From TrEMBL:
This protein's record includes keyword Ribonucleoprotein: no
Name the record gives this protein: Uncharacterized protein
GO terms (BP aspect): mitochondrial translational initiation; ribosome disassembly
SUPFAM superfamilies: Translation initiation factor IF3, C-terminal domain
One GO CC term on file: mitochondrion
Molecular-function GO term, any one: translation initiation factor activity
Keyword Magnesium: no
Keyword list, A-Z: Initiation factor, Protein biosynthesis
Organism per entry: Patella caerulea (Rayed Mediterranean limpet)
Low complexity composition bias: residue spans: 243-254
Chain spans, region Disordered: 238-266
Family label: Belongs to the IF-3 family.
Length: 266
């Protein structure tokens, strides 16, 4: 028998023994990930994309062992518990048991959206179609996105910065302002030259370049300087104007008919 054939048989036998060990461990501990195959020392296998046999083994081993991966346990609720169903406009539809609500939703091809319990402790659901459920999710995403505080970006500018580096940093700052992020600029001079007129002139020139680049996009506040460092804080104009103009505590019923724009020429 040739040497290559003996090597192949040796590797195959080692592989089969490892597979049996893996099967025994997986049956005793089904939560283990079966795709991590441990081979004996000095035995290596190529990437699964290069070796179709290994790829086939990885995809079918867990199915053969009937292993189920549990990411989170669903909340168990009493099917006899009384719940409330609301439509998309938060109008009460009916009260019934949870089991009947699930049967009703399945029969009418509708969805139950859990909105928590009311002050009396009654479990409540919105009774929505698939389209309405998608729109409800989009509204929730927009609300979370708008309520999330914008992270302040920090831009450090050294006194000896080259023009192309300065332009690159200012372009990045402009992009951040357009996305609604406030930006803080730290214009750092050299401490030993802080009192020299030429050095102050250089820092003022850098400050002027920064202001000229962003003055149409942001309100600029000059923060207190420390030593040879000047600080500028830029806030997007849209963010500031929305904080100043947005009405607070106005309900839809308080809007007069004249303030509602006509639709479709009516």
């Amino acid at each position: 028998m040739s040497a290559p054939m003996m090597n192949r048989k040796c590797v195959l036998s080692l592989f089969i023994s490892s597979l049996r060990q893996l099967q025994e461990v997986s049956l005793s501990k089904p939560y283990l990930n079966t795709t991590r195959l441990r081979l004996p020392p000095n035995i290596y296998i190529r990437n699964s994309l290069e070796n179709p046999f290994i790829k086939h083994f990885k995809t079918t081993a867990s199915n053969n062992l009937n292993i189920k991966y549990k990411f989170s346990k669903p909340v168990k609720r009493d099917p006899l518990e009384t719940v409330q169903l609301f439509d998309g406009s938060d109008k009460l539809i009916c009260k019934l048991t949870l089991g009947d609500a699930q049967k009703k939703a399945k029969k009418e091809n509708m969805k139950l959206l859990d909105i928590g319990r009311n002050p009396d402790g009654v479990l409540s659901f919105k009774y929505l179609s698939g389209k309405d459920l998608y729109q409800e999710g989009m509204k929730l995403r927009k609300t979370k996105k708008s309520s999330k505080e914008k992270e302040m970006k920090v831009v450090d500018i050294l006194w000896k910065i080259e023009d192309h580096d300065l332009n690159r940093k200012l372009d990045n700052a402009v992009e951040s302002l357009k996305k609604g992020h406030p930006v803080k600029f730290n214009i750092k001079g050299k401490v030993r030259l802080a009192e020299e007129a030429t050095h102050k002139l250089l820092l003022n020139e850098l400050k002027k370049k920064v202001k000229n680049k962003i003055e149409t996009l942001a309100f600029i506040d000059e923060a207190s300087s420390e030593g040879a460092t000047f600080r500028l804080v830029a806030r997007p104009i849209e963010e500031v104007s929305s904080e100043e103009v947005s009405p607070v505590g106005v309900s839809p019923e308080e809007v007069s008919p004249e303030e509602v724009s006509p639709k479709d020429g009516k």
